[in-house]
Amino acid sequence: MAKKGTPPCGNFNPVLSSGKLTQQLIVDYYCRIEGDRSKYIRSQQSKLREETYSGLADALRATANETNSIVGKLVVLPSSFIGSPRNMVQNYQHAMAIVKEFGKPDLFITFTCHASWPEVITKFLDSLHLSDLPPHSLVLKKGTIVILLRNLNVIYNLMNGTRLIVRNMYDHSLDLESITGKGTGQRILLPRIDLTPSDSTLLYLFTRHQFPIRIAFAILYCLLDCIYPILYLVMVNFMLPCPELDFLKS
């Protein structure tokens, strides 16, 4: 569904607008944080009172002797390490202490839903952001640069990846002008068509009746960390007249 209007320029964030690349960035930094925490625990075992776990070490050595195994260096995860066995036991003990002090809970509330409910399916499908489908809500304005997502006509250079610019918008079609390839300058009227995702791992098979386009982005290689030089692809939208992005155009 195409909507007329201009997105708020001041709220645009190239990192948060990168889709799957943003998710990859978050996962990578989460793994780095967990790695740093694990490294600190390994190097600070003496400060974490490792000697209090001597009984555990003796039990491990006895088990290793019985199975002819070799015991490596013992690293104890404290209860402050979220997700560790001691952290789970500590949370359980805290819960039992609350029950002992205030009594058993009066209500135990559960909510059950079925994956095939129309409300669940609609909300789930609307929240999907697939690379070969336009977003559920597509916001356009005159002058927006878009990219074609389907091969429509090879003769007129209307193929997947063709860049076009929006010249006008109507209720059931878009007036577009090609700005790349042999058909540069050519005007077309693009209707809505039925689009089906190519991802076979989705829970549902569905078809959307949409314009086969999405807003075009430029690709920028950005070094986000000087200590660990990792290159991330950051999608930067040059369509919006944002003062925050002027330094990228110089």
Summarize the biggest pleated sheet: 5 strands, antiparallel
Total number of beta strands: 11
Spatial order of the strands forming the largest sheet:
6-5-4-3-9
Poorly predicted runs of 5 or more residues: 1-9, 219-250
Overall mean pLDDT score?
A: 75
Pfam family, one: Helitron_like_N
InterPro entries: Helitron_helicase-like
Keywords: Membrane, Transmembrane, Transmembrane helix
Provide structural commentary.
With 250 residues, the protein is α+β, with helices and mostly antiparallel strands. Residues 1-9 and 219-250 have low confidence and may be disordered. It has helices at 20-43, 54-66, 85-102, 118-126, 246-249, and strands at residues 2-4, 138-140, 145-148, 163-169, 173-178, 187-191, 193-195, 208-210, 213-215, 218-223, 231-236. The two termini are 35 Å apart. The radius of gyration is 28 Å and the shape is elongated.
Question: Short summary of the structure?
Answer:
With 250 residues, the protein is of the alpha+beta class. The protein is built from 5 helices and 11 strands; from the N terminus they run βααααββββββββββα. Helices cover 27% and strands 20% of the residues.
Keyword list:
250 residues; 5-stranded antiparallel β-sheet; two-stranded parallel sheet; 11 strands; elongated; disordered N terminus; disordered C terminus
List the helices and strands and how they pair.
Elements (H helix, E strand, L loop, with lengths): L1 E3 L15 H24 L10 H13 L18 H18 L15 H9 L11 E3 L4 E4 L14 E7 L3 E6 L8 E5 L1 E3 L12 E3 L2 E3 L2 E6 L7 E6 L9 H4 L1
Parallel strand pairs: 1-2
Antiparallel strand pairs: 3-4, 3-9, 4-5, 5-6, 7-8, 10-11
Keywords: Membrane, Transmembrane, Transmembrane helix
Pfam family, one: Helitron_like_N
